[in-house]
Amino acid sequence: MKRITLILVAVLTMGLTSVFAQKGAASFTGTITSKTTCSGTTDPNIIAQINGESTQMVCGNRTKMVQVQEGGLGIIQISNGDTKMAYVILDIPGMGKYYIETSGDSIAKGMEKMKTDYKYTGEKKTVAGYECEKVVASMVNLETDEETETIMYVSKDINPGSEINFASHPGLVGFPLITEQHRDINGENITIVSEAVTITPSKKIKPVEFLLPTDAKDIHTNPDLMKMLGMGGGDDDDDE
């Protein structure tokens, strides 16, 4: 359970570091490589799961990232800001592909219990050749009053709208090239920083590459897998 939880943390973290860029254009097609590092822990398992580089394909408001974890577990993330649909596909050796679907409506419903504020500070920084503005995102849980903060450097020259951010930062205008978060993982206060390092435009990437794989099954068809991922409840969830 701990290993799978760390994998999902890494997936969510990578999902929060999507980068879209092409100077002077609202729509970009190409690949983006970003580097993620963490500090505040000496746990080799956490470091191995979070630290590293990822390459993502982008086509307009569509994004796709493919990762291969230790043991051959494949993780595919697909997001479409036009249709407001996002998918995480788990390609599990010996079991096949299973997808977790998230809609913009479900995200909006979940956000009803949260208060989010984006403060554009006016502070500038150049990231991977693009001018960015520092934004401090504050999120307050209205039920518990718990507050979390994320620091981002966003460029409105990369994507001037908010559609591309529907799954990671709903309502954010401009897209982050740097994201800094603080997470409590296994009782440790860990700082996770993701930063774009290279951006390569390419006309070879087509919208068809961002479709849900036809051989992927809805994860709800496999209750045992849901239970293993902590999505289905049960007594075994406490057995970590």
CATH superfamily: Lipoprotein localisation LolA/LolB/LppX
Spans of at least 5 consecutive residues with low confidence:
1-26, 233-240
Which topology does CATH recognise? outer membrane lipoprotein receptor (LolB), chain A
Q: Return the CATH architecture.
A: Clam
Q: What's the main sheet like?
A: 12 strands, mixed
Distance between the termini: 6 Å
Shape: globular
Number of domains: 1
Percent in strands = over 45%
Task: Name the assembly state.
Answer: single chain
Gyration radius, rounded: 18 Å
Counting helices, strands and paired strands, the structural category is mainly beta
* Structure summary, number of beta strands: 12
What's the tally of helices?
4
